[in-house]
Amino acid sequence: MQLSIGKALVMGGAVLGVAVAAASCENKAEQKGPQAASGALGASASLKQLMDSRGLSEADVEAAVKTYVPGGKGDEYMIFASGGHSGQVLVIGVPSMRLLKVIGVFSPEPWQGYGYGGESDKVLAAGAQNGKKISWADVHHPNLSETKGDYDGQFLFVNDKANGRVAVVDLTDFVTKQIVPNPLVASDHGGAFVDPNTEYVIETSQYPAPLGRAYEPLSEYKNKYRGVAMFWKFDRQKGRIDVEKSFAVELPPYTQDLADAGKLGSDGWAFINSFNTEMAIGGTLEGKPPIESGASKNDMDYLHVINWKKAEQLVKDGKATTIKGMKVLPLKVSGEEGVLTLVGEPKSPHGCDVTPDGTAVVVGGKLDTHATVYDFAKMKALIDQKKFEGKDDYGVPIMNFKEAIRGQVEIGLGPLHTVFDDKGFAYTSVFIESVVAKWSLKDMKTVEKLPVHYNIGHIMAAEGDTVSPDGKYVVAMNKMSMDRFSKVGPLYPQNFQLVDTTGDQMRILIDAPIGIGEPHYSQMIKIDKLKPISAYKPGENPYTGHVDPNAVLKEKDAKIVRNGTTVDVYMTAIRSHFVPDQIEVNEGDTVNIHLTSLESAEDQVHGFALNMYNVNVSLEPGKHENISFKADVPGVFPFFCTEFCSALHLEMAGYFLVKPK
Amino acid sequence: MNKLVSMVGLGLVLVACNSPQGTAASSAAASTAAAPSPAKSTTPQSNMPPLDPKNIVSIAVGSKDHTTLVTALKAADYVPSVANPGPLTVFAPTNAAFDKLPAGTVDGLLKPEKKEDLREVLKYHVTTSVYEAEGFKDGDTLSMANGQKTKIAVKDGKVSINGANVVASIRASNGIVHVVDAVLLPPKKE
Q1: A544-659, CATH topology level
Q2: Which of A460, A465, A540, B178 could form a disulfide with B166 if both were Cys (CB 3.0 to 4.6 A apart)?
Q3: Neighbouring-strand partners of residue A149
Q4: Angle between the A58-67 and A45-54 helix axes, to the nearest 10 degrees?
Q5: What is the DSSP letter of B133?
Q6: A10 touches chain B (CB under 8 A)
């Protein structure tokens, strides 16, 4: 009854009525089939019947059992995944792969009332670039805060590649507290990576441009266009990035890509790759090669090795210049002082991942067939001894490739990113071959390839970029899903495949369609490291962490205070009414609604929506919100609770009246 | 070139190989005695993507001049690699090109025990990115999928790679196919 792939394709072609040339072959050497059924499940007769009727194999059932989480039981791990263009972050449970939450980060999120008239408007407004409000992002790399190189479950940092911004999410309430716009660059990529104690959040630029976003013609590309590595100082006490204490390291216009921070022995260093040392700028209309081919000419691009501890000291010593209010360590200083050193990396590299022991950096050559393992001790010795094979046009010293590497591992066509387990294995995503390659760090040999569906971008392992990976799961973040799910029009969901890495062979457990944005990267943390709250302190403003001065802690303190054309409404919400529930103002008045939820019980949430004024806030237990707007449209506007809070939820409403002039 | 494309458009052409899963399933079924056994897996473990008619593989399969290449791709289990989105540039030797090899070479490479060698040869015909014939310059080098390099020559507007002439070029949905009149043999690795 089992269809071979070939037959399935014929059927597909016939149904479509399209002339199809189909070929199907199994990759016997590299692609391991499903584990042979052992019959060990001892399935009952009715289960066997069910399996037959649904066409499920024992391997399928085993995978289902491994991922099924019964109601009432939580997951073992939590994934924080970028929501891509949605500007949000997705929270997914493992092994169930159930979506638990979508956190509003760079884009407004109505359910959480994020960006709809309340305090969160200030967070989003702070993310403006060039004075322009930006309501989307291309969220790339979520990174969890670390203590001694291990996830501590306190904060999450994400970058917006599209607009060069970094955000801080507090994991006590899973709310975005800060968006910091990079004043120097127009796009970033290598962020938001942290050093082992989260002293800094690292954000490196992507497409070179004049720093500070000034105008310079493309003919000045080599002279005036630059990249940067931003080191955003993180104040853990305040839970915010301290822009004043942050600095940037100016980089050559080589189109820096991914970055990672050193750990253990390599702590204090950062590594960034680059893919356009050719400095190709396109010009397709004039018959010049597109950047795609222009940037693929050189056999080697450059891995950037940055001594950020030294950079920090030089900035303190006053060696930085200031651009758009940001301290920038000039390229010349970095080259001379040993802050920045380059070493060749084969062919348009992509991933850049420090091993758990901190002794090596693994780089995947996107147009190469190898993963290159750079040895930190060797590079450090070359830098200390100033043993270089030359300098680039910007005076930055270059190490000899062969002297800097531990070796190269034959991976396959299109290796990208590498993650690690607890048994000395590395897992590299291979885009073009559409496989996960498992290889031994000790033997530097590929031991297994797992076909994934289809065309994996990032790969992620359970706590896989910490000093102590868990080694239980790998997630293949596939860029294409093609025939994996029911069709939803020409824009397909991406496919996260959860892979069990505990056995001798890797095994795909479940496909999870991601129907939001273009998820890019993610990290997976053990659930017990997270300590989220279930309610705020009574009257707490989540953006200050304190009881708000305008909080209304008792219903009897609710009031309306008019002062000229300003109306302050001190308001409470509790099942199932607002006090006050009738508010009348004059057209043109400035209205400030100070709204406190008097609820304290778990999961008793209200919302407050004001019709036609684009106001909608979420009121989790204890939370205080401050809403401000101008009553510029006269009329009668009901307001109501937007969260189904109780049996009398619909009755939780009131009237806002604006008397015309 | 048009001829090749029209071949693809003609009708349903099918290449199917023995699936290891099918083999495992049937042998397992044979050894299971009584009750009807469920299929061993409904989750295809191959990463063979669905093919559209302009896929590199579809183009090769649809060409009567490339039957040897298709046989070789199957024998080396290299079909999914050239079927996926890439983009890839594939240099596709014709049957005549394979015939030019010393007698017995092709048959030797097609033997199961020579699969790795065959795969190396095929990988030497594949590289990433789309390289249009007009974009090549005399002396260009290309890094091929097996990790070794090829050299491009352009003389009087005619492109050759390691001495093999590019006789036609077909834009595919996942890259480009350059039909060549000789097989590219990878140099011995050090």
Answers
A1: Immunoglobulin-like (2.60.40)
A2: B178
A3: none
A4: 100
A5: G
A6: yes
CA A440/CA A464 separation, integer angstroms? 15
Reported as a single tens digit per residue, the pLDDT across A417-466 is 999 999 999 999 999 889 999 999 999 999 999 999 999 999 999 999 99
ipTM: 0.72
User: Mind telling me how many Å the CA of A52 is from chain B's nearest CA?
Assistant: 5
Token pair listed for A341: 């050193």
Please, which residues bridge with residue A512 across strands? Answer: A496
pLDDT tens column, B85-112 = 888 999 999 999 999 999 999 999 999 9
Q: Spell out the domain ranges in chain A.
A: 182-350+377-404, 544-659
Chain A residue at shortest CA distance from B55 = A21
- In degrees and rounded to multiples of 5, residue A14 shows phi and psi of -65, -40
State the distance between the two ends of chain B, measured CA to CA, in whole angstroms. Answer: 38
Q: Residue A270: beta bridge partners?
A: A261, A306
Say which of A23, A33, A296 has its CB closest to residue B129. Answer: A296
**pLDDT class of A77 with cuts at 50, 70, 90:** very high
Residue A537 is given by DSSP the state P
Amino acid of residue B89: T
* Token pair recorded at residue A647: 């049996």
Closest residue to A454, CB basis, from B36, B78, B84: B84
Task: Please determine, looking at this structure, whether the domain spanning B2-6+48-135+166-180 carries the CATH number 2.30.180.10.
Answer: yes
In three-state form (DSSP H/G/I as H, E/B as E, the rest C), the secondary structure along A363-424 is: EEECCCCEEEEEEHHHHHHHHHCCCCCEECCCCCEEECHHHHEEEEEECCCCEEEEEECCCC
Tokens of A240: 């915010």
Amino acid at B143: S
Contact A82, A140 (CB under 8 A): yes
**What DSSP designation does A132 have?**
B
Location of structure tokens 């348009």: A348
> What DSSP letter does each residue of A528-593 carry, written as one string?
GG----SSPPTTEETTTTEE-TT---SGGG-EEEEETTEEEEEEEEETTEEES-EEEEETT-EEEE
Q: Do A228 and A205 contact (CB within 8 A), yes or no?
A: yes
Mutate to test the interface with B, among A3, A7, A25 (most CBs of B within 10 A): A25
Q: For the domain covering A182-350+377-404, report its CATH number.
A: 2.130.10.10
* The two three-digit tokens of residue A378, written as one number: 């060797």
Helical residues (DSSP H) of A320-375, grouped into ranges: 331-337
**What does DSSP say about strands A566-574 and A590-597: parallel, antiparallel, or unpaired?**
parallel
